[in-house]
Amino acid sequence: MTDQVQEAAGNGWQSEKFIKNLAKRKRAERRFRLTGLLAILTALTLLGILLFSIVSKGHSAFIQTTITLDITFAESVIDPNGNRDAAELRGANYAKLVQDALREKFPDVKGRRDLRKLFSLISNDADSALREMVENDPDLIGKTVPVALVAGDDVDMLKKGYIDRSLAEDDRRVKDQELAWLDVLEAEGDIETRFNSGFFTNGDSREPEKAGIAGAMVGSFYTLIVTMLISFPIGVMTAIYLEEFATKNKLTDLIEVNINNLAAVPSIVFGLLGLAIFLNFAHLPRSAPIVGGLTLALMTLPTIIIAARAAIRAVPDSIRQAALGLGASNQQAAFHHILPLSMPGILTGTIIGLSQALGETAPLLMIGMVAFIADIPGGFSDPATVMPVQIFLWADSPERAFVEKTSGAIMVLLGFLIIMNAFAIVLRKKFERRW
Amino acid sequence: MLTQAEANVENGPDTGNGVIISTRDVNVYYGDNHALQGVSLDINKHQVTSLIGPSGCGKSTYLRCLNRMNDTVDSCRVTGEILLDGVDIYGPSVDEVLLRARVGMVFQKPNPFPKSIYDNVAYGPRIHGLADNKDDLDEMVLTSLEKAGLIKEVQDRLHSSGTGLSGGQQQRLCIARALAVRPDIILMDEPCSALDPIATAKVEELIDELKENYTIIIVTHSMQQAARISQRTAFFHLGEIVETGDTEKLFTSPSDKRTQGYITGRFG
Amino acid sequence: MTCVARLFHLPSVLFTNEKETVMSFYPLVIVLLLMSAAGYWFGSKKALRTVRKSSNFLTPRPHQFGLYVVIWSLVPPVILGVIWAVLQTTPLETDTGAMRQIDQVVFPVMLLLATGAGLYFSILRINPDLRVRKTIEGLVYVLLILASIISILTTLGIVLSLLFETIQFFGKVPMSEFFFGLNWSPQTALRADQVGSSGAFGSIPLFTGTLLITFIAMCVAVPLGLLSAVYMTEYASNRFRAVVKPLLEILAGIPTVVYGFFAALTVGVFFRDLGDSLGIDVVSESALAAGVVMGMMIIPFVSSLSDDIIMAVPQSLRDGSYGLGATKSETIRKVILPAALPGIVGAVLLAVSRAIGETMIVVMAAGFAANLTANPLEAVTTVTVQIVGLLVGDQEFDSAKTLAAFALALVLFIVTLCLNVIALMVVRKYREEYD
């Protein structure tokens, strides 16, 4: 009897060995738990680094450096005939006004090369701003007015601190001579920074300081409209058919398997499909939102169908039964009751699918939406680009100033995605129904 | 073109009292499962007929044959003859939708649509085009609610959600909703099983009143309920009808041993 | 061409100058719509007059009769119109007088006649016993089925378009070279008379490159994703879950072009500088950078799939283990994870299929030169990078270079499809086990 107890104490749950072992097990438990937490923290840190690197590079895209110069709107340059003809005013050489103002500011600068360097302090797009001023107010002609002109991209980069003054002159894009000029302007308070509204209103440009995302935003908008108009009705109709009307047969099985697999097809393959069908076969215009929208619609369709089916399935059978019991037909039950009740879920899925389409790049490269397009598209068949493709194009550009543009465009794109997803979440929270 | 008899199924009979539904040798299969075996039963007009029996005996299956709700189950197959006013309701020219408008149904769990009380009741008249104008529709909704004994409780909140009512009220709303389509026959599938005793009493009272104008077939697992409200009773067991008869007779002197066993509580 | 534009409801004037067709097209549509609108009005009026009303006499609603008339007035001309459109795509000489006559006169007249006949007979047939609901719902049913078939057509379109070009490709380049060749340099196939002989189309380096990057991505995503899922399901409080889970999901919502930018500009440079400081030679387009960032993108994919799978392990198994005195980590490692293993394998396969098909990250952060190496510090190229490289920019359509992109895409499609089918099968089997 006693022996047995002792033996039990030697090996059992009160034994020293067991207790020691237990401490070890507890430590293992804590280690394991910590590993899990670390994994989550690592993932979140990566996310944080990503967002931080984008924002730190991109926030300066929203501000712009300007140089204020006293511009003399000389009649001899703008309107030599003095008749204020609109066409003549538009065609005048406004760049000369900028150049004259700069010459006046720095009268010592001589020689073609030095002058060209001096002129490059100001964006070569500055003339269009002056033209606009004169067209709005012809009375300016003959007067001298201080005007804040957009600075060239190198000046902008310098002002924002992306170019290191302490580097040797040969390693630096802005040379000593230019620095000296800029210091003069800075000392006189002529260099300022302001909100870069052009970033949101301009189309693409080879010149970083005047490149904007308006063209890409409008292109994305048209593309997304096409995507939505095609994929939403077809997706909902497919989901309704599969959930409410389809009898189990070979065709239904095929559609089902097929939708699940389509959802996993790499997006670039949809691009090749778009290239082969919409461009090479149907001869729709290259680079147009209509083609991009159609291609993205095919890609988004499975997402919408899967979400819509889940939403429809969540409506309890008792609702269907109640309608049928009153003599509603299957279709009346589906369209009067099931569909409206599942609509919040369907819309949530649709928004998520569309936000994927908004961020998609690869398939659009295949259908020629990578062309350089400076104009803002005016319709569904105009050549256009979309925001992610614009980001891709800018990311490829060599100029230092395009890095901030790229990051800025990413911030805008992420902003749109956040708005869409927030809308989806609100929709779900507000209309979610627990049966 | 429909024959006169076929038109009757959808459009209402011109017969007097007597048998309204007559079923002969009805078999129902769910896939390979033979759920109902050779059931023959006549239902009298303007009476309450109750179907009793242990769980899984096929009484609900039988009830769902009478307005072809079984059609909604893919694997379900029905053979035999179900005559409504002499017309086979599974005949090729019968539209199951119009049939269901004539043979209404109330389900086990109250299932109001998540809409207002008014819209719940108005849904049937709307889809069938029973009302000519808004006043007509209002009138129908109020009458139906009144018939279902619910009007006093809801008249000041007709436009609040039907799902906000208590269980018993929801079930009476479902009955009102069925009445608004003006059916001849109302099928009730254990309408009180989800309700408390007081709500049950109210629904039972309502059923008793309704039999003046409607033919009611009710599935119930409560023998007391069957005894209280029905004039005729059919006892189902393992997919067959064991015994049919006047309720009083069936409960006092059943002719089959199995019926006796069930009503005295030896199984079920 | 016109007909395709018509199918997509586009004004064909945008793409062609076949003014005559356009001119007769819109008025025709308007006349047809007006006719059917009149039919609707007349049909419902006649129904109101004809249909007897009584309390228990259920007949179709007047508007249903109206719709019935509309269907009969629109379906025949639509079918005719589709035939018309198909005839226009056939490569017949449409400029001959007879064809032109048919195109410009016969078909429009036939359309109008069909509409008129449809209207006449359907209105004639209105009587209370007419089964108009069957007609209306039949049409809706057909539309729903047509919508569902679009997803099948998409798959068919992908397979056919890829297959067609691939067969052409193998007509120019032998299959053995494509599948077993170690040398990939399609860009050198410049001389038209020497296609295939001078350009090298051995795809092995692309596949090894793809596998290398995918492997690195999995090394990042699987441990982080799986451990996160374990912590989330087994340890985290509801509040922690509610906050952290959406944060992790953000990773999945970021567009791939953003990851590409991040990989190219931040991570690639970081690894290069790190290598420099350690005295190791790391190229800035290293497989490591692309792989790590791709892994980062896939973390939420792995974690949410594993999350579902771990949740599906029945509570009874956990209870059994706790009941024997096991700690939480012991239960997870010895009971839950082994039980969930098949499901997790399925999830990883799905993640692999995503990584293989991912395009933008590698296009922006991996190399273009085919490099047969297993060293993650060197630049490798992938299948998707080459597809983009071959198809973006100007190309002649039938060159082996362009066709090679389709052959690569077909391989990509088949591989991801197989992975996906296997993964779904594994997961489904796993689910059934615990249902």
Give an account of the 3D structure.
- The complex is a heterotrimer of chains A (435), B (268) and C (435).
- Chain A has 435 residues and is mostly helical.
- Chain A has helices at 2-11, 16-58, 75-78, 86-91, 94-105, 112-119, 126-136, 153-159, 176-187, 198-201, 214-245, 250-262, 267-281, 289-313, 317-325, 330-359, 362-366, 387-396, 401-431; strands at 63-72, 144-150, 191-195.
- Helices cover 66% and strands 5% of the residues of chain A.
- Chain A has a 3-stranded antiparallel sheet.
- Chain B is built from 11 helices and 10 strands.
- Chain B has one domain: P-loop containing nucleotide triphosphate hydrolases (Rossmann fold, 3-Layer(aba) Sandwich).
- In chain B, helix 4 (117-128) packs across helix 5 (134-147) and helix 4 packs parallel to helix 7.
- In chain B, a hairpin with a 2-residue loop joins strand 1 (19-30) and strand 2 (33-44).
- Chain C is built from 15 helices and 2 strands.
- A two-stranded antiparallel ribbon of chain C has the order 1-2.
- The longest helix of chain C has 41 residues, at 132-172.
- The chains are: A mainly alpha (435), B alpha/beta (268), C mainly alpha (435).
- Chains in contact: A-B, A-C, B-C.
